[in-house]
TrEMBL record:
This is PhzF family phenazine biosynthesis protein. Belongs to the PhzF family. NCBIfam families: PhzF_family (TIGR00654). Keywords: Isomerase. Transmembrane segments: none annotated. It holds the Pfam family PhzC-PhzF. The lineage of its organism: Bacteria, Bacillati, Actinomycetota, Actinomycetes, Streptosporangiales. It comes from the Bacteria.
């Protein structure tokens, strides 16, 4: 009861991906106790599951600083941990952002992949004066560092993320920002991450996600931002229904991660797939 597991998501090796804490039965824990566990672990998020019925769970996510409505990588980590114990199939998670079904599958070698269906995705253009310029200043970027083919938006698939396209792979790789300044902007505007990306091709992207609200400089893999970003691309008309998107994240910080996203025909939600492995 209340055992704290440690997994890293969107990778097949313990040295890659994004670490997350997982508590598979948190029914006896208070919010204050969950926050304390998350803070002690120091990961960007920890997932706490409250079983309600067979393969049905209420789930809460805590960063080191606060509760968050939805977290993709902790969902993948928790679902793989569940799959190792209860086997393949669908589990249904009730999050603050809405219902999130997760399909758990195992290949012949026993490797488990979890595919979550995000809350509905939406996006809107970002304000140049009130949102984009202050963030560029905190990043130490100029307007010339952005790719005009991808307009700045605030995208959501469970929580808000500012989406900015880097003009080059080199610009994306060279990230050294003002943590306090960006953190204040994000806190004031209610953003979870700033999703910085560079397009290698129409369906392959490289991304970095500064995450001051979670108390960390950068997230190595961000499933919620990946879902929001996929919805953003679809709204821009850059993805067809059923298109599959590959996102490489964490490479520049030494924790390579692989996220696979797909749109759903006739549905604003997004599927996000990944693996996870225990951290010893």
């Amino acid at each position: 009861m209340n055992e704290v597991l440690r997994y890293t998501a969107f990778t097949t090796t313990p040295t890659g991906g994004n670490p997350a804490g997982v508590v598979l039965d948190a029914r006896e824990l208070s919010d204050a106790e969950m926050l304390a566990i998350a803070a002690e672990l120091g990961y960007s998020e920890t997932a706490f599951l409250h079983p309600t019925d067979e393969r049905q769970y209420r789930i809460q996510y805590f960063s080191s600083l606060a509760e968050v409505a939805f977290c993709g990588h902790a969902t993948i980590a928790a679902s793989v941990a569940l799959g190792e114990r209860i086997g393949p199939g669908t589990v249904n998670l009730a999050t603050q952002a809405g219902p999130v079904p997760v399909e758990i599958a195992a290949d012949p070698a026993g490797e488990i992949t979890a595919t979550l269906t995000s809350p509905p995705a939406s996006t809107r253009p970002a304000s140049e004066e009130e949102e984009v310029r202050p963030v560029l200043a905190a990043l130490g970027w100029s307007a010339d560092d952005l790719d005009p083919a991808y307009p700045a938006h605030v995208a959501n698939a469970g929580n808000d993320h500012l989406v900015l396209a880097a003009a080059s792979r080199g610009r994306l790789a060279d990230l050294d920002y003002d943590f306090e300044a960006l953190g204040k902007i994000m806190a004031d505007l209610g953003w979870t991450t700033v999703h910085l990306f560079w397009p290698e091709s129409p369906t392959v992207f490289h991304a970095r996600d500064p995450f001051p609200p979670g108390g960390v400089v950068e997230d190595p893999a961000t499933g919620a931002a990946a879902a929001a970003f996929t919805g953003y691309l679809r709204t821009l008309g850059r993805l067809e229904d059923g298109a599959v998107l590959t996102i490489h994240q964490g490479v520049d910080m030494g924790r390579p991660s692989l996220l696979t996203c797909s749109t759903i025909p006739g549905d604003s939600r997004v599927k996000v797939s990944g693996t996870a492995v225990p951290i010893q």
